[in-house]
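=== RUN LOG ===
request id: a7f3
mode: sequence -> structure
chains: 1
length: 121
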Amino acid sequence: MVFDTSEGREPLQFKIGENTIIPGFEQSIVGMNAGEVKTVKLASEDAYGPHREELVMKVPQEKVPPEMNPKMGDMLQVQLSSGQVSYALVTSVSEEGIVLDVNHPLAGRDLVFDIKLLEIV
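=== RESULT ===
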C-alpha cells in the first residue's frame, strides 16, 4: 500500500545530518547523484522503529470527556504524562473505555521507498 508520496506536489527537501527524516532514508540518499533513481527497502528498525506496547494505553470510560464520542480509527491529540503532546490512534472502543496507540502508524513495519534525487544544493 502507498502510505505517502510526493508525486504531484513539492518534493521533499532536507539537509543531511539534521535528523529531520528517518535514519535509513537519510542513509539511502548519501552517495546518490542528482537525477539518480533507486528503490530502497528499510527494516522497521531503520525507519520508525518497532511497535512498542508501552505506547498502547487503556483509558477508562470515566476519563473520556463526556462530549467526546471517539470511534475506532479516529486520531486524537493527547497530552502524555511527560507533558508532550502527541497523536494517538483509537484502536478499540467499549463500555469500559478506549484503547489508544501512540506509536507512529508505520512503527513495526518494513518500508520500501522509490527515490529520485532531483537536486543537491
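=== NOTES ===
The longest strand covers residues 85-94.
The chain has a mean pLDDT of 92.
=== END ===
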